[in-house]
Amino acid sequence: MGFSRAMVLLATQSEGRRTLVKEGLRAGEDHASGSIQDSLDLIGRQGRIALGSHETAPKTLVQKREASSSLVDPLPHSGADLLPSFRRAPPSCAASVCIERATMSERVPPPHGVMEGKGAYNKHARIQASGVSLAVPFLESAARRIIPGPADQSIVIVDYGSSQGKNSLTPLRAAIGTMRSFLGPNRPILVFHVDQPANDFNTLFEVLESDTDSYALNDTHVFPSAIGRSFYEQVLPCDHVHLGWSSYAAVWLSRIPVPIPDHFHSSRSTGAIRTEFERQAAGDWEAFLALRAAELRSGGRLVVVLPAHNDRGSPGFMNLMDHANAVLAEMVAEGAISIGERERMILGSYSRKRSELLAPFARAGHFHGLSVEACEMFANPDSAWEDFERDGNKEALAAKHASFFRSTFVPSLATALGPTRSGEELGAFGNRLEVGLKDRLAQQPPAIELAVQAIVLAKLPAA
Amino acid sequence: MGFSRAMVLLATQSEGRRTLVKEGLRAGEDHASGSIQDSLDLIGRQGRIALGSHETAPKTLVQKREASSSLVDPLPHSGADLLPSFRRAPPSCAASVCIERATMSERVPPPHGVMEGKGAYNKHARIQASGVSLAVPFLESAARRIIPGPADQSIVIVDYGSSQGKNSLTPLRAAIGTMRSFLGPNRPILVFHVDQPANDFNTLFEVLESDTDSYALNDTHVFPSAIGRSFYEQVLPCDHVHLGWSSYAAVWLSRIPVPIPDHFHSSRSTGAIRTEFERQAAGDWEAFLALRAAELRSGGRLVVVLPAHNDRGSPGFMNLMDHANAVLAEMVAEGAISIGERERMILGSYSRKRSELLAPFARAGHFHGLSVEACEMFANPDSAWEDFERDGNKEALAAKHASFFRSTFVPSLATALGPTRSGEELGAFGNRLEVGLKDRLAQQPPAIELAVQAIVLAKLPAA
Question: A208: which residues sit within 8 A by CB, 6+ positions away?
Answer without folding.
Answer: A165, A193, A214, A216, A224, B228
